[in-house]
Amino acid sequence: MSKQLRFVRGITVRQTSVIGGAASNEGSRVAGVKDGQELASTQKLSEVEMEAVGRPPSVLSLNVPPSVPIHIKKGSLLSIFGISEKNWHSITMSLDFTNWFRRIVFGGYSFNYQRIVGTIPFSLLVSSKSRSLIWNQKGQKSFVTLALDGTDDWAILNRSALQVYTGGTLNVSLHRTPKYVNKSVAASLQLPTKSLTGLHSWNHRGFTMLSGRGQAGLVGEGSLYHIALKEGENVFINKRNLLALSVNGQTDLANCVVKYSFAGIDVSGESAVNSSLSGTKNLPLDINEHHESPPGGFPYYWHLTKLYINALVKYSSKIRAKIVNHFIGNQEFVKVVGPRSVLLQSSVSEFNSFSMPSTTTGKVETTQARKSSDYLNYVTIEKGKGAVFKSTPDFKETVSQIEKKN
After folding, report:
1. CATH of domain 13-22+36-261+331-345
2. I need a labelling partner for 39 at 20 to 30 A (CA). Which of 161, 177, 315, 335 fits?
Protein backbone atom coordinates (compact mmCIF):
# COMPACT_ATOMS: atom_id res chain seq x y z
CA MET A 1 0.00 0.00 0.00
CA SER A 2 1.48 3.34 -1.06
CA LYS A 3 1.35 6.34 1.23
CA GLN A 4 0.64 9.81 -0.07
CA LEU A 5 2.60 12.67 1.43
CA ARG A 6 0.94 16.05 1.49
CA PHE A 7 2.81 19.29 2.04
CA VAL A 8 1.04 22.53 2.89
CA ARG A 9 2.80 25.89 2.68
CA GLY A 10 1.90 28.26 5.47
CA ILE A 11 0.82 31.72 4.33
CA THR A 12 2.91 34.41 6.00
CA VAL A 13 1.28 37.64 7.18
CA ARG A 14 3.78 40.37 7.97
CA GLN A 15 3.58 44.00 8.92
CA THR A 16 5.06 46.18 6.22
CA SER A 17 5.58 49.76 5.09
CA VAL A 18 7.17 49.10 1.66
CA ILE A 19 5.72 47.00 -1.19
CA GLY A 20 7.70 46.41 -4.35
CA GLY A 21 10.81 48.31 -3.31
CA ALA A 22 13.72 48.19 -0.92
CA ALA A 23 13.54 50.09 2.32
CA SER A 24 15.67 53.19 2.67
CA ASN A 25 18.69 53.29 4.92
CA GLU A 26 18.22 54.74 8.37
CA GLY A 27 19.44 58.25 8.97
CA SER A 28 22.53 58.84 11.05
CA ARG A 29 22.20 60.13 14.60
CA VAL A 30 22.61 63.83 15.35
CA ALA A 31 24.58 64.94 18.38
CA GLY A 32 22.30 65.78 21.28
CA VAL A 33 19.24 64.04 19.78
CA LYS A 34 18.21 60.59 20.94
CA ASP A 35 15.59 58.23 19.51
CA GLY A 36 14.99 60.55 16.59
CA GLN A 37 15.03 59.54 12.94
CA GLU A 38 16.91 61.96 10.71
CA LEU A 39 15.16 63.10 7.54
CA ALA A 40 17.76 63.22 4.79
CA SER A 41 17.60 65.96 2.18
CA THR A 42 19.29 64.69 -0.97
CA GLN A 43 20.48 67.25 -3.50
CA LYS A 44 21.19 64.87 -6.41
CA LEU A 45 18.26 62.63 -7.29
CA SER A 46 17.15 60.79 -10.39
CA GLU A 47 13.77 59.62 -9.06
CA VAL A 48 11.49 60.28 -6.11
CA GLU A 49 12.48 58.68 -2.81
CA MET A 50 9.64 57.69 -0.48
CA GLU A 51 10.10 56.49 3.08
CA ALA A 52 7.46 55.91 5.74
CA VAL A 53 8.81 57.08 9.10
CA GLY A 54 7.62 56.70 12.64
CA ARG A 55 6.31 53.80 14.72
CA PRO A 56 3.67 53.28 13.50
CA PRO A 57 4.63 54.87 10.14
CA SER A 58 2.24 57.83 10.24
CA VAL A 59 4.41 60.26 8.24
CA LEU A 60 5.80 59.93 4.71
CA SER A 61 9.14 61.53 3.84
CA LEU A 62 9.77 62.37 0.17
CA ASN A 63 12.91 63.55 -1.61
CA VAL A 64 11.83 64.99 -4.95
CA PRO A 65 14.11 65.66 -7.96
CA PRO A 66 13.55 68.67 -10.24
CA SER A 67 10.63 68.77 -12.71
CA VAL A 68 8.88 65.73 -11.19
CA PRO A 69 5.29 66.49 -10.07
CA ILE A 70 3.99 65.11 -6.78
CA HIS A 71 0.27 64.73 -6.11
CA ILE A 72 -0.65 65.00 -2.42
CA LYS A 73 -4.10 64.87 -0.89
CA LYS A 74 -5.15 68.36 0.09
CA GLY A 75 -4.68 69.11 3.78
CA SER A 76 -2.03 66.45 4.44
CA LEU A 77 1.17 68.41 3.66
CA LEU A 78 3.21 68.94 6.83
CA SER A 79 6.48 70.52 5.71
CA ILE A 80 8.65 71.55 2.78
CA PHE A 81 12.37 71.62 3.51
CA GLY A 82 15.78 71.17 1.89
CA ILE A 83 15.74 74.49 -0.01
CA SER A 84 16.99 77.98 0.80
CA GLU A 85 14.68 80.92 1.33
CA LYS A 86 15.70 82.60 -1.93
CA ASN A 87 14.61 79.54 -3.94
CA TRP A 88 11.04 79.37 -2.64
CA HIS A 89 9.79 80.77 -5.94
CA SER A 90 11.08 77.59 -7.62
CA ILE A 91 8.27 75.57 -5.99
CA THR A 92 4.83 75.83 -7.58
CA MET A 93 1.54 74.41 -6.28
CA SER A 94 -1.80 73.94 -7.97
CA LEU A 95 -5.04 72.07 -7.33
CA ASP A 96 -5.75 68.92 -9.31
CA PHE A 97 -9.29 67.53 -9.15
CA THR A 98 -8.46 63.96 -10.15
CA ASN A 99 -11.44 62.13 -11.68
CA TRP A 100 -13.79 64.29 -9.61
CA PHE A 101 -16.99 63.37 -11.49
CA ARG A 102 -16.38 59.62 -11.48
CA ARG A 103 -15.42 59.75 -7.80
CA ILE A 104 -18.74 61.40 -6.95
CA VAL A 105 -20.66 58.88 -9.04
CA PHE A 106 -18.84 55.89 -7.54
CA GLY A 107 -19.17 57.13 -3.96
CA GLY A 108 -15.65 58.44 -3.46
CA TYR A 109 -14.93 61.78 -1.84
CA SER A 110 -11.10 62.03 -2.04
CA PHE A 111 -10.55 63.81 -5.34
CA ASN A 112 -8.89 67.09 -4.31
CA TYR A 113 -5.10 66.80 -4.63
CA GLN A 114 -2.27 69.33 -4.55
CA ARG A 115 0.16 69.16 -7.45
CA ILE A 116 3.66 70.23 -6.33
CA VAL A 117 6.59 70.58 -8.72
CA GLY A 118 9.92 72.41 -8.49
CA THR A 119 12.87 73.35 -10.64
CA ILE A 120 15.29 72.33 -7.88
CA PRO A 121 15.40 69.30 -5.56
CA PHE A 122 13.31 69.58 -2.40
CA SER A 123 11.89 67.40 0.37
CA LEU A 124 8.40 66.95 1.81
CA LEU A 125 6.71 65.58 4.87
CA VAL A 126 3.18 64.24 4.38
CA SER A 127 0.80 63.25 7.16
CA SER A 128 -1.36 60.14 7.08
CA LYS A 129 -4.34 62.31 8.02
CA SER A 130 -5.78 65.17 6.01
CA ARG A 131 -7.72 68.08 7.46
CA SER A 132 -11.39 68.15 6.53
CA LEU A 133 -14.37 70.29 7.50
CA ILE A 134 -16.84 67.39 7.16
CA TRP A 135 -15.05 64.15 8.01
CA ASN A 136 -13.64 63.77 11.48
CA GLN A 137 -10.75 61.32 11.19
CA LYS A 138 -10.27 59.36 14.38
CA GLY A 139 -7.90 56.61 15.29
CA GLN A 140 -4.46 55.64 14.10
CA LYS A 141 -3.50 55.68 10.42
CA SER A 142 -0.39 54.10 8.88
CA PHE A 143 1.48 54.54 5.60
CA VAL A 144 2.56 51.91 3.08
CA THR A 145 4.45 52.71 -0.13
CA LEU A 146 3.93 50.98 -3.46
CA ALA A 147 6.59 50.84 -6.19
CA LEU A 148 4.97 49.97 -9.53
CA ASP A 149 7.27 48.77 -12.31
CA GLY A 150 4.58 48.07 -14.92
CA THR A 151 4.25 44.32 -14.32
CA ASP A 152 1.36 44.43 -11.83
CA ASP A 153 -1.51 46.82 -11.31
CA TRP A 154 -3.11 47.64 -7.97
CA ALA A 155 -6.81 47.89 -7.13
CA ILE A 156 -7.33 50.18 -4.13
CA LEU A 157 -10.64 49.35 -2.48
CA ASN A 158 -10.53 51.93 0.31
CA ARG A 159 -11.79 55.11 -1.32
CA SER A 160 -9.68 57.41 0.89
CA ALA A 161 -6.45 55.35 0.90
CA LEU A 162 -4.54 57.08 -1.92
CA GLN A 163 -2.61 59.85 -0.12
CA VAL A 164 0.39 60.47 -2.41
CA TYR A 165 1.29 59.41 -5.94
CA THR A 166 3.92 60.30 -8.53
CA GLY A 167 5.25 59.01 -11.83
CA GLY A 168 5.21 60.24 -15.40
CA THR A 169 3.62 57.02 -16.70
CA LEU A 170 1.52 56.22 -13.62
CA ASN A 171 -2.16 56.09 -14.53
CA VAL A 172 -4.74 56.72 -11.79
CA SER A 173 -8.25 55.78 -12.88
CA LEU A 174 -11.60 54.82 -11.36
CA HIS A 175 -13.75 51.87 -12.33
CA ARG A 176 -16.99 50.30 -11.24
CA THR A 177 -16.63 47.59 -8.61
CA PRO A 178 -17.74 44.26 -10.13
CA LYS A 179 -20.87 42.85 -8.53
CA TYR A 180 -20.62 39.32 -9.91
CA VAL A 181 -17.76 36.88 -10.33
CA ASN A 182 -16.58 36.09 -13.85
CA LYS A 183 -18.60 33.18 -15.28
CA SER A 184 -15.53 31.16 -16.25
CA VAL A 185 -14.04 31.60 -12.77
CA ALA A 186 -17.35 30.65 -11.16
CA ALA A 187 -17.46 27.49 -13.27
CA SER A 188 -13.88 26.55 -12.34
CA LEU A 189 -14.67 27.05 -8.64
CA GLN A 190 -17.96 25.12 -9.00
CA LEU A 191 -20.04 28.12 -8.00
CA PRO A 192 -23.40 29.36 -9.33
CA THR A 193 -23.30 31.48 -12.47
CA LYS A 194 -24.25 34.71 -10.68
CA SER A 195 -21.97 34.47 -7.67
CA LEU A 196 -21.32 37.74 -5.85
CA THR A 197 -17.87 39.21 -5.37
CA GLY A 198 -18.97 40.76 -2.07
CA LEU A 199 -17.19 44.05 -2.85
CA HIS A 200 -20.03 46.02 -4.42
CA SER A 201 -22.39 48.00 -2.19
CA TRP A 202 -24.50 51.14 -2.46
CA ASN A 203 -21.83 53.32 -0.84
CA HIS A 204 -18.80 51.57 -2.41
CA ARG A 205 -19.60 51.36 -6.09
CA GLY A 206 -16.10 51.96 -7.45
CA PHE A 207 -12.40 51.39 -6.84
CA THR A 208 -9.17 53.21 -7.71
CA MET A 209 -6.84 51.59 -10.23
CA LEU A 210 -3.07 52.19 -10.31
CA SER A 211 -1.28 51.07 -13.47
CA GLY A 212 1.96 51.87 -15.24
CA ARG A 213 5.22 52.89 -13.60
CA GLY A 214 5.49 55.11 -10.55
CA GLN A 215 5.15 55.26 -6.78
CA ALA A 216 2.22 55.72 -4.44
CA GLY A 217 1.68 56.18 -0.72
CA LEU A 218 -1.41 54.54 0.76
CA VAL A 219 -2.89 55.04 4.21
CA GLY A 220 -4.97 52.55 6.16
CA GLU A 221 -6.69 52.33 9.51
CA GLY A 222 -4.53 50.89 12.30
CA SER A 223 -1.55 48.77 11.28
CA LEU A 224 -1.00 47.49 7.73
CA TYR A 225 -0.09 43.93 6.81
CA HIS A 226 1.01 42.24 3.59
CA ILE A 227 0.03 38.76 2.40
CA ALA A 228 1.72 37.14 -0.62
CA LEU A 229 -0.45 34.42 -2.18
CA LYS A 230 0.97 31.85 -4.58
CA GLU A 231 -0.81 29.94 -7.34
CA GLY A 232 -3.62 27.81 -5.91
CA GLU A 233 -3.64 29.56 -2.52
CA ASN A 234 -6.52 31.59 -1.13
CA VAL A 235 -7.34 33.51 2.03
CA PHE A 236 -10.59 34.61 3.70
CA ILE A 237 -10.65 38.29 4.66
CA ASN A 238 -13.23 40.62 6.13
CA LYS A 239 -13.94 42.93 3.21
CA ARG A 240 -13.86 46.02 5.44
CA ASN A 241 -10.23 45.22 6.31
CA LEU A 242 -9.22 44.67 2.68
CA LEU A 243 -7.21 47.75 1.68
CA ALA A 244 -5.81 46.86 -1.75
CA LEU A 245 -4.64 43.94 -3.87
CA SER A 246 -2.56 43.42 -6.99
CA VAL A 247 -4.47 42.69 -10.20
CA ASN A 248 -3.84 42.16 -13.89
CA GLY A 249 -6.02 44.78 -15.51
CA GLN A 250 -9.28 46.41 -14.45
CA THR A 251 -11.40 43.28 -15.07
CA ASP A 252 -9.20 40.98 -12.97
CA LEU A 253 -11.02 41.97 -9.77
CA ALA A 254 -13.94 39.78 -10.87
CA ASN A 255 -11.56 36.83 -11.25
CA CYS A 256 -9.99 36.78 -7.80
CA VAL A 257 -12.58 37.80 -5.17
CA VAL A 258 -15.61 35.70 -4.19
CA LYS A 259 -18.17 36.45 -1.48
CA TYR A 260 -18.12 33.94 1.37
CA SER A 261 -21.05 33.22 3.69
CA PHE A 262 -20.87 31.05 6.77
CA ALA A 263 -23.13 28.03 7.03
CA GLY A 264 -26.52 28.59 8.62
CA ILE A 265 -27.34 31.99 7.10
CA ASP A 266 -28.34 32.46 3.48
CA VAL A 267 -27.47 36.06 2.68
CA SER A 268 -29.10 36.00 -0.75
CA GLY A 269 -32.43 34.88 0.73
CA GLU A 270 -33.21 32.52 -2.16
CA SER A 271 -33.82 29.48 0.05
CA ALA A 272 -36.27 31.41 2.21
CA VAL A 273 -38.25 32.42 -0.85
CA ASN A 274 -38.40 28.91 -2.29
CA SER A 275 -39.49 27.38 1.01
CA SER A 276 -42.10 30.04 1.74
CA LEU A 277 -43.90 29.96 -1.60
CA SER A 278 -44.21 26.81 -3.64
CA GLY A 279 -44.90 27.16 -7.31
CA THR A 280 -43.67 30.75 -7.52
CA LYS A 281 -40.09 29.97 -8.56
CA ASN A 282 -38.92 31.62 -11.78
CA LEU A 283 -42.15 33.54 -12.26
CA PRO A 284 -42.27 35.55 -15.50
CA LEU A 285 -41.89 39.27 -15.11
CA ASP A 286 -43.90 40.14 -18.23
CA ILE A 287 -47.41 39.06 -17.26
CA ASN A 288 -49.14 40.02 -20.51
CA GLU A 289 -46.68 37.99 -22.58
CA HIS A 290 -46.49 34.78 -20.54
CA HIS A 291 -49.94 34.59 -18.95
CA GLU A 292 -52.85 33.49 -21.12
CA SER A 293 -55.68 34.93 -18.99
CA PRO A 294 -56.87 38.39 -20.07
CA PRO A 295 -56.36 41.37 -17.74
CA GLY A 296 -59.23 41.76 -15.31
CA GLY A 297 -59.88 38.08 -14.73
CA PHE A 298 -59.36 36.23 -11.45
CA PRO A 299 -56.36 34.12 -12.71
CA TYR A 300 -54.64 37.30 -13.84
CA TYR A 301 -54.95 39.03 -10.47
CA TRP A 302 -54.06 35.82 -8.62
CA HIS A 303 -50.90 35.49 -10.68
CA LEU A 304 -50.12 39.16 -10.08
CA THR A 305 -50.64 38.73 -6.32
CA LYS A 306 -48.27 35.76 -6.20
CA LEU A 307 -45.68 37.77 -8.11
CA TYR A 308 -45.80 40.66 -5.62
CA ILE A 309 -45.79 38.28 -2.64
CA ASN A 310 -42.74 36.55 -4.08
CA ALA A 311 -40.93 39.89 -4.41
CA LEU A 312 -42.00 40.92 -0.89
CA VAL A 313 -40.74 37.67 0.66
CA LYS A 314 -37.43 37.94 -1.20
CA TYR A 315 -36.97 41.53 -0.02
CA SER A 316 -37.90 40.59 3.56
CA SER A 317 -35.40 37.72 3.50
CA LYS A 318 -32.61 40.05 2.42
CA ILE A 319 -33.51 42.54 5.16
CA ARG A 320 -33.57 39.73 7.72
CA ALA A 321 -30.17 38.47 6.56
CA LYS A 322 -28.66 41.96 6.79
CA ILE A 323 -30.04 42.45 10.31
CA VAL A 324 -28.69 39.07 11.44
CA ASN A 325 -25.32 39.77 9.83
CA HIS A 326 -25.17 43.15 11.54
CA PHE A 327 -25.49 41.61 14.99
CA ILE A 328 -23.38 38.52 14.28
CA GLY A 329 -20.70 40.47 12.43
CA ASN A 330 -19.22 37.53 10.51
CA GLN A 331 -20.88 37.74 7.10
CA GLU A 332 -18.62 40.36 5.51
CA PHE A 333 -15.94 37.91 4.38
CA VAL A 334 -14.57 37.43 0.88
CA LYS A 335 -12.23 34.81 -0.51
CA VAL A 336 -9.19 36.16 -2.36
CA VAL A 337 -7.62 33.73 -4.83
CA GLY A 338 -3.90 33.81 -5.65
CA PRO A 339 -1.42 34.44 -7.06
CA ARG A 340 -1.37 38.08 -5.93
CA SER A 341 -0.36 40.44 -3.13
CA VAL A 342 -2.91 41.60 -0.57
CA LEU A 343 -2.79 44.58 1.80
CA LEU A 344 -4.82 44.48 5.03
CA GLN A 345 -5.69 47.15 7.57
CA SER A 346 -6.19 46.10 11.17
CA SER A 347 -8.98 48.61 11.89
CA VAL A 348 -11.91 50.06 10.00
CA SER A 349 -13.23 53.60 9.96
CA GLU A 350 -16.60 54.39 11.44
CA PHE A 351 -19.44 54.79 8.95
CA ASN A 352 -20.79 57.90 10.58
CA SER A 353 -17.69 60.00 11.12
CA PHE A 354 -19.09 63.53 10.88
CA SER A 355 -17.60 66.11 13.20
CA MET A 356 -19.94 67.02 16.02
CA PRO A 357 -19.48 69.90 18.46
CA SER A 358 -18.25 68.70 21.80
CA THR A 359 -20.20 69.48 24.95
CA THR A 360 -18.60 70.07 28.32
CA THR A 361 -20.00 69.62 31.78
CA GLY A 362 -19.17 71.38 34.99
CA LYS A 363 -17.53 68.31 36.46
CA VAL A 364 -13.75 68.52 36.69
CA GLU A 365 -11.80 65.32 37.16
CA THR A 366 -8.63 65.50 39.21
CA THR A 367 -5.62 63.42 38.28
CA GLN A 368 -2.82 62.45 40.57
CA ALA A 369 0.51 64.07 39.77
CA ARG A 370 2.98 61.67 38.19
CA LYS A 371 6.28 61.00 39.86
CA SER A 372 9.59 60.56 38.10
CA SER A 373 9.56 56.87 39.05
CA ASP A 374 6.41 56.43 36.97
CA TYR A 375 8.20 56.98 33.66
CA LEU A 376 11.95 56.43 34.39
CA ASN A 377 12.92 52.79 33.88
CA TYR A 378 16.14 50.84 33.44
CA VAL A 379 17.01 47.25 32.55
CA THR A 380 19.65 44.94 34.04
CA ILE A 381 20.79 41.47 33.03
CA GLU A 382 20.70 39.06 35.97
CA LYS A 383 21.80 35.45 36.03
CA GLY A 384 18.91 33.03 35.80
CA LYS A 385 16.41 35.85 35.19
CA GLY A 386 17.59 37.49 31.98
CA ALA A 387 16.47 41.07 31.33
CA VAL A 388 14.85 42.67 34.39
CA PHE A 389 13.00 46.01 34.05
CA LYS A 390 12.82 48.30 37.10
CA SER A 391 11.64 51.85 37.78
CA THR A 392 13.74 54.53 39.45
CA PRO A 393 13.17 58.12 40.62
CA ASP A 394 16.70 59.20 39.68
CA PHE A 395 19.21 57.71 37.24
CA LYS A 396 22.22 59.03 39.22
CA GLU A 397 21.34 56.98 42.29
CA THR A 398 20.71 53.89 40.16
CA VAL A 399 24.01 54.20 38.29
CA SER A 400 25.97 54.53 41.53
CA GLN A 401 24.27 51.42 42.95
CA ILE A 402 25.12 49.40 39.84
CA GLU A 403 28.76 50.57 39.94
CA LYS A 404 29.07 49.49 43.59
CA LYS A 405 27.81 46.00 42.70
CA ASN A 406 30.41 45.71 39.96
Report:
1. 3.60.160.10
2. 161
